Amino acid sequence: MQQEALFYDHVIGLRDTIPTTSQTKGETDVVNLQKTIWRPSTKIVGGSLAFPATENNIGSFFEFAKRGRSFNLTFQYHTGEGREFESCKVSSWSLSCTAGDICNVSVEVMGVGLEDSTVGLYTNAEKLITWDKVDLTPAISSHPIQAFNININNPLIPIYTSTSNSEKDLWPLEIRVGMQEVSGTISFWGRVDDYYDIQGPYTMTLTILGFSTPITVLFQPVQPQGSVNPIITTIPFVGIDRPFGS
């Protein structure tokens, strides 16, 4: 949670001390208490989470990021105590996978309030999702994929009103979602010569076990390059229209 004390400085004047015998500055040790008038700023709560993907959590925040919908997020400690963050929205969601490794998800959220809560402990055992469970179709290139990542960015704007300042104790009344941006990259083993210019919209389907979503993107041009190291071609893309369908 973030809230600051906003001070009104220089109530008496611009001097650091109050002279008693002359108009020069700093002749006595009397301190000019300039920070005696203040007010609390508006409140906002937010944070980030990063976790390895499992079959149960791979789609946990995706729909909220995709639609900009609100949800309550409960954060719990091993003791059973926790906090509930109210009316949260996803400001960013990222999925990254690299050949030979596990898939990782990172999420940033913003909310309009929080309360202490008591929740049950989470003890379910889950298997991590490894690269071999990730599938992109149709094939973009005949070269094997070395890495893939996709990012959803939702610019969030907290809305404060006279109603929220009084009835909600300086919490925002709501959070508005701005224009969504989708971006990412696909890296291939070897030199890919087919994407040196923008060729038009391309719809690929990302499937990870039970999680599946179409993604409509434009592939951006890549610069031809030579290397004495293993050649990896990384092609960036941006989402267009309705990147994840209707």
Terminal Cα separation, in Å?
34 Å
What portion of residues is helical?
under 10%
* Model regions low in confidence, pLDDT < 50 over at least 5 residues: none
Strand content: 35-45%
Q: In sequence order, what are the helices and strands, one letter per element?
A: EEEHEEEEEEEHEEEEE
Question: Taking Cα atoms only, what radius of gyration do you get, to the nearest Å?
Answer: 26 Å
The overall average pLDDT, rounded, is 81
Total helical segments: 2
Number of separate strands: 15
Q: How many strands, what sense, and barrel or not for the largest sheet?
A: 11 strands, antiparallel
Instruction: Kindly give the count of domains.
Output: 1
Q: Which class do the helix and strand fractions yield?
A: mainly beta
Query: What spatial form do the alpha-carbon principal axes imply?
Result: globular
Topology (elements, then pairings):
Blueprint: E1 5-7, E2 38-40, E3 45-52, H1 62-67, E4 71-76, E5 81-98, E6 104-111, E7 113-118, E8 134-137, E9 145-153, E10 156-159, H2 162-167, E11 174-177, E12 181-189, E13 202-208, E14 211-219, E15 232-239
